Amino acid sequence: MALRVLKRLxxxxxSLLVSSVIVxxxxxxxxxxxxxxxxxVNASESAVAQVREQFGLDRPLVVQxxxxxxxxxxxxxxxxxxxxxxxxxxxxxxxxxxxxxVATAMVVAVVIAIPVGTLMAVRHRTVSGVVLSAIxxxxxxVPAFLAGILLITVFAVKLGWLPANGxxxxxxxxxxxxxxxxxxxxxxxxxxxxxxxxxxRSAVLDVLREDYLRTARAKGLRxxxxxxxxxxxxxxxxxxxxxxxxxATLLIGAVVVERVFVIPGLGSLLLDxxxxxxxxxxxxxxxxxxxxxxLVNFLVDLLYVVIDPRLRAGDA
Amino acid sequence: MTKxxxxxxxxxxxxxATTAASLLLAACSAGSGPGTGSDGGEGSxxxxxxxxVGLVAEPANLDFTTTDGAAIPQALLYNVYENLVExxxxxxxxxxxxxxxxxxxxxTTYTFQLVEGATxxxxxxxxxxxxxxxxxxxxxxxxxxxxxxxxxVESVQAVSPTELEVxxxxxxNDWLYRMTTRIGAMFDEQGVQDxxxxxxxxxxxxxxxxxxxxSLTLSRNDDYWGEAPYFESVTLxxxxxxxxxxxxxxxxxxxxxxxxxxxxxxxQFESNDEYQVIEGTTNGEVVLSMNNESGPMANEQVRxxxxxxIDHQALVDTCWAGRGELIGSMVPPTDPWYEDLTDTxxxxxxxxxxxxxxxxxxxxxIRLRLPSLPYATSCGTVVKSQLEEVGFTVELDQLxxxxxxxxxxxxxxxxxxxxxxxxxxxDMGAVFGDPDYYTKYGTQEFQDLLAQADxxxxxxxxxxxxxxxxxLSEDAAADWLFLLPNLIVAEADITGxxxxxxxxxxxxxxxxxxx
Lengths: 316, 515
Description:
Chain A is mainly alpha-helical and about 325 residues long.
């Protein structure tokens, strides 16, 4: 068990190091001088040079890299040369917004996927199972931003039930917060829910064929009882894996959905910073996303052990 | 003695506002919002209402002394910062923090009488010392290149707390006009420590909240020296996506679309009584810029051929939904020296074909390098197809704006043609007067004309600037596709919206709501 955790931790650290180099290298090869972009069309050459010096953009890349990694490790993200404001609090605010969105979307996905997927598996030979299956296929094919645009058109513009876009922090106005969260969370969660449904279905189908379930039935449990008591926990292992992977997809999907719904989250910060060539912020945000995804995978690995006692004894 | 004296007060718009509806609103928001002394009940032209305006370009920070771009002055000028003089809807220079001014006979000394009782939002009083500080700060500390307009100032003297004397090195008609733009904004010496985040001005509004990536909220400055604006607060909300901006108005999240970016979407508002659509002009010339120095466009005949090959009306109809006036040179209709020059090179594909053949450059491939902006990409394809019809070979590529376009086209001039809107007011000299600028034009004759216009009398200024605009057009230093329209959509009862966007500011101080 301890060895397993250590091994995973080693992989985590190694991946972090490699990805930090890749992220930094990508930023370095982007066309366009960040200092020039920060100051705009009419800035004088000397002003551009001054900014380049002030923010250390004239130093060797290796030094800039070391400086950046050190900053990230100590949670000191520095000051943006575009907004002239500390990056840390800005990123923290945005991350919180994205977290709300992703978490709600995840809940939407799970709430849809588990009952529907299970139902599809149980009824896989019946008409209703096939129909559900077909609907979920369509769901998989629809990108989140398209779902968002359709939802806005129907529920905000035509029916006027919910705001078309915007964001209000929950502390400021909880009702508004919820109203504005509904559509983006659904558009992000719906698609993920459709994908997840497919996995739940096949996981439950696999479990249904297992011997222990037949044994449970033989003991006198009804099919539903047998599935609930013995089946779902076993079906959960592959589903949790997919959930972990989906969390990564959700974070990326949030970038687009935030744009459609004008939400000031990490995604819109990332897009703005890319076009402003606010490279420090871009690096930081991308790296934070990478860390988040790697951490989730790490936690999922650990979670297997909790779900599946067989893995506790053995040494995977 | 030809002393010119101006003496008018800032034009006041009296908005009779308070009806049952706005009283009701005031009552509803009384619990949550900070109520001000001047509530709507006494028939004054103010209300507790909040206005939300949707705009497109968000300021990266709030310091226009070192950060370029139109977004910062659009939000702050005239609203948070005030100038000695401002420009009104008719293009006239009108008093603001200076209640009057006199110009000496040799036109090098300006004496301003300043208003009394104006204070900055940090509580400091506005005096001639502040005006002196502001002007000198432009010369010393500003880094944006627009500051060059202040180079002509020789000395500034605070004669008394309310009298300011500015001496110029030589007469300059342009200088007073530039004082209405961002470089004329008045700062307090104690208020410039953190311009990027905490602007301090004398204006009717103060920045009260800023949510990066989302909005900027201006709240009424209760100690304002002049007439209080109608709205208690104005939130400028920024949208990257034109459709999201339209949807926000349609679903009541915002009250006004300050700059419409998708003119083809206007129909849905024009056919709806709940909204008003305002269409006027701006200072944004959409220029088909050409590299006058190297490559095929250095050949004047090629440039002339381009101008004759383009059917401008068809182009505007296709790529900007027919909104936007045609201009034949670098002058918008709101400038005093505007002349219709659209006939300098009228659309004539046959003539264009001949010119291209005579030039000997017909076999060259022209690189049309576009910034990734809506008007540029949609007009770029039309330009390409129109040019290819008369025998040009055009290679179109798109560069991410601002970064990639700035470094490739703007800084390195590695292009033959591009499309970009130059939005600064009176920017003919800035865009074409400098041979090192990316247009690589700046002929001596053109520079001389502009210099003489700047130093001459008011009549000479008009005449000589007209000559310069004609020269520019005849030399085909570029082609002017059209003038970006000022397109505003608002709820039908909003008043005081500007027909033409003339200044650098999106002036929210004049806005009100009809009873």
